[in-house]
Amino acid sequence: MDAPRRLRRARPRNGDGMRESVVRVGPLMVLPALLRELGCAPEPLFRTAGFDIASFDDPDAWIPYVSGSKLLERCIEATGREDFGLLIGQRASPSCLGISGYILRTAPDVRTALQDLVRHFDLHDEGGLPFMTTTGSVSLLGFAIHQPGVAAAGEIYDLAISVACNIMRGLCGAGWRPGEVLLSRRRPVDPAPWQRFFQAPLSFDAEHSAVAFPARWLDHRLPNADSLLHRHLEAEAAALRAQRETNLVGATRVMLRHLLAARKTSVGEVSRQLGMHERTLDRRLHEEGTTFQRELDAVRYARAQQLLANTAMSLDRIATALEYADVSAFIRAFKRWAGVTPARWRVRARTR
Questions:
Q1: Which segments of the chain belong to CATH 1.10.10.60?
Q2: In the chain, count of helices (H) and strands (E)?
Q3: Given the DSSP bridges, would you call strands 209-214 and 62-64 parallel, antiparallel or unpaired?
Q4: Which of 120, 218, 220, 262 is deepest in the core (most CB within 10 A)?
Q5: CATH class, 22-228 region
Q6: For the whole model, what pTM was predicted?
């Protein structure tokens, strides 16, 4: 097993001083071959998107998240395939996720494997994060984009949830079946490709993107468990993480995006998750030139844009998903952020 390439220390920064999110090429290595298979020459698409196609030969190469999403958008437009993200994801194995994919193979059971995936996924992808929740007898393995300004978000969710499904099939074997698949994207004109791949009830225009399955699978023992190798890979992941820049604003936004899914975005919960007192969090955010409310608004605005552009969810449902007391409060907040109402913004987004 080749050791994953060390993360670079320096990363470009965006307009608000945040490090720009990056993602490993990993699952996108199939892009050139897939484009040729669909009758498109990949070289012009990569060139106009600002990428050297040769860099996609290396799974450990890092590319900017937003630029990569725009390349994906160009590929979708060129091929006319609304299932393009699905086509990428169904070809992906856990190995394409780098060390976060290697670790889960050596875990003792499915629960530990998925916890490892969630904990170490940022070593593969800085612009989105997986989540795992259990309510009663049903567990969810999902994915949420927290990087603002991402293109083709619906197709990225297709890619991520198809990878999640592949992970579960690999861990659990032929007996595993998803109970339901939730996708935060508009219903495609022809849902047959999704039905064939997932072989489960589909819910489009969902608040979150996730695969649901019986929680009993979390206790399934893995035949390839290797405690010594698991410990070694955990140490390798810790070494990789130690090289990275720490940024409290970035960590706060990621945690807020994660907690927004559970509707628990209080300053108390965020500070608890980050391991500090509320006053310490407030003070350190102030030192970095921001406030907790400003970061919560930024996360809500980015999520609102995703839901407006990529789903047919009603404004009432979006307001609830963003923890607003009613739709009027959401409309006022969105107009303050964007200068237009969410309904008008949605029309503009779909006519670009």
A1: 248-350
A2: 16, 7
A3: unpaired
A4: 120
A5: alpha beta
A6: 0.86
> To 5 degrees, how large is the angle CA 7–CA 13–CA 19?
50
Q: What is the DSSP letter of 9?
A: S
Tokens 């897939």 correspond to: 34
Q: How many C-beta atoms lie closer than 10 Å to residue 81's C-beta?
A: 17
| Sequence-distant (≥ 6) Cβ neighbours of residue 217 within 8 angstroms | 110, 139, 168, 172, 176
Pairing of strands 138-145, 22-24: unpaired
Task: Say how far apart CA 146 and CA 254 lie, in whole Å.
Answer: 6
Please tell me the least confidently modeled range out of 32-36, 109-113, 196-200, 258-262: 258-262
Quick: pLDDT tens for 103-125.
998 999 999 999 999 999 989 99
12-16, 276-280, 324-328 — which is least confidently predicted?
Answer: 12-16
Ordered DSSP codes for 289-319: T--HHHHHHHHHHHHHHHHHHH----HHHHH
CA atoms within 13 A on the CB side of 54: 0
Q: Which CATH number fits domain 248-350: 1.10.10.60, 3.30.420.40, 2.40.40.10, 2.60.450.10?
A: 1.10.10.60
User: Where in the chain are all domains bearing CATH 3.90.1520?
Assistant: 22-228
DSSP 98: T
